[in-house]
Amino acid sequence: MEFVAKPYAIECVDDAGTILAEVTFPEVEPGVVDINHTQVDASLQGQGIAGRLLEHAVGTIATRGLHARTSCSYARRWFEKHPEHKGLLA
Questions:
Q1: Could you give the angle at the alpha carbon of 14 between the alpha carbons of 69 and 58, nearest 5°?
Q2: How far is CA 29 from the centre of its chain?
Q3: Which of 56, 59, 66, 80 is the most exposed place for a label (fewest CB within 10 A)?
Q4: How many CA atoms lie within 13 A of 55 on its CB side?
Q5: Which of 48, 90, 41 lies closest to 70 in space, CA to CA?
Q6: What is the pLDDT along the chain (90 residues), one digit of tens a residue?
Q7: CA dist., res. 45 & res. 39, Å (int)
Q8: Which CATH number do you get for residue 8?
C-alpha cells in the first residue's frame, strides 16, 4: 500500500494501482480548500487508514500555505481530536 498525493486529494493505492482509500480537498476559494470526502475500502476499515489520509492531507494543505474547511464529517471529528492543527482551519 502506498499513499499518493494528487493536487487536491490523497489516495491510498495497492500494488496494482487500485484506489483503496482517499480524501479529497478541492479549492473552494482562493487559499481555501474543503476537505469534503474521506472513504476507506471495507477491507481496510479499522486500521487507522482514514486518520493517516487526514495527516497526509493536513501536511499537504499546510505546505501549500492553504487553509481548510471540513464538510466531511470524519474530517470535522479528526480536527476536534487534533487541536494542534486548528490553525489550519479557515
A1: 20
A2: 18
A3: 80
A4: 7
A5: 90
A6: 899 999 999 999 999 999 999 999 999 999 999 999 999 999 998 999 999 999 999 999 999 999 999 999 999 999 999 999 999 999
A7: 9
A8: 3.40.630.30
Residues 34, 68: contact at Cβ < 8 Å? Answer: yes
DSSP letter, residue 65: T
> Residues with Cβ < 8 Å from 48, sequence gap 6 or more?
none
Q: Phi first, then psi: give them for residue 34, nearest 5 degrees.
A: -115, 110
DSSP 8-state code for residue 15: T
Place of cell 478541492: 26
Residues 6 or more apart whose Cβ sits within 8 Å of residue 46: none
Q: Domain of 37?
A: 2-88
β-strands 32-35, 67-70 pairing: parallel
Q: What predicted TM-score, i.e. pTM, was given to this entire model? A: 0.91
